[in-house]
Amino acid sequence: MTRQSKPTITAFESSPDKGAGLARDTRVRWAFEEVDQPYDVRLVSFKAMKEPAHLALHPFGQIPTYEEGDLALFETGAIILHLAQHHAGLLPDEANARARAITWMFAALNTVEPPILERENTRLLPSEEPWRAQRMPILDDRIRSRLGQLSASLGDAEWLDGSFSAGDLMMVSVLLRLRNSSDMLDEYPNLSAYIVRGEARQAYKRAFAAQLAVFTGKSSTGSPCTGSALRQGSGLSPGASTRTNEHGRK
Ligand code: GTB
């Protein structure tokens, strides 16, 4: 079912990754593109994210949020699941296959992403922190363990469970975060190829271009997003370092 009203999401007004596609609005944009649902984007500054108007949408003062009529959602998992449940294209029709695809969404968010984020946050600590150098190899091992298991599960398949699903969208998004900061994925050729397959999807390309356009100031083409972005005030200079943690802080 395709819904009538056009949803609005929020994204960084000035993403610290300078349009590398690592902020979590990218995965939501990707889901919109996969189901061919036009959307609007409201850009928010770091300052505005912590103010009452945004906190009313997102209790933790983060992006992305999702608004559609009188429904407001936060958490990318919930937003993408909502989209997948209301549009064809991201979840199989058959009940068990659908449940398995949702399982992969949770696996990406709850099992694969946490050690990647922990490594990222540790990596960005000042190098003079005495335990930083000791901790990094421990976190690398933890990630390798997950990647090895994921690689074995994927095997020679194109996607995690039959056709491309919201589970693959989420898993590829999570792995892209790792690829940005480590060569570790090169050790798992089937996972590297899996990511490349995700990036090769036209829907991903449109989503990536749309988020990059916010940084470059150029409108992207081919996207169902009308690009009617409403700015809520500036919080970060465009030249800010990409060495930022989850919260966009250096
Ligand atoms: N669990 C939530 C979800 O999945 O929606 C997490 C949301 C989240 O972490 N949002 C981040 C945020 O709003 C942006 S995506 N941070 C601001 C804050 O907490 O104050 C995480 C992110 C941030 C920066 C980069 N980067 O610069 O490369 C990449 C990803």
From TrEMBL:
Q: Which UniProt keywords apply?
A: Transferase
Where is the segment annotated Disordered?
1-20, 217-250
Start-end of Polar residues biased regions? 1-13, 217-243
Instruction: Enumerate the transmembrane spans.
Output: none
> Is Transferase set as a keyword in this record?
yes
Domain GST C-terminal residues, every copy:
94-228
InterPro entries linked to this entry: Glutathione-S-Trfase_C-like, Glutathione-S-Trfase_C_sf, Glutathione_S-Trfase, Glutathione_S-Trfase_N, Thioredoxin-like_sf
Q: Does the keyword Transport apply?
A: no
Q: Which PANTHER family did the record assign?
A: GLUTATHIONE S-TRANSFERASE GSTA, GLUTATHIONE S-TRANSFERASE-RELATED
Protein name in the entry: Glutathione S-transferase
Q: Which organism is it from?
A: Rhodobium orientis
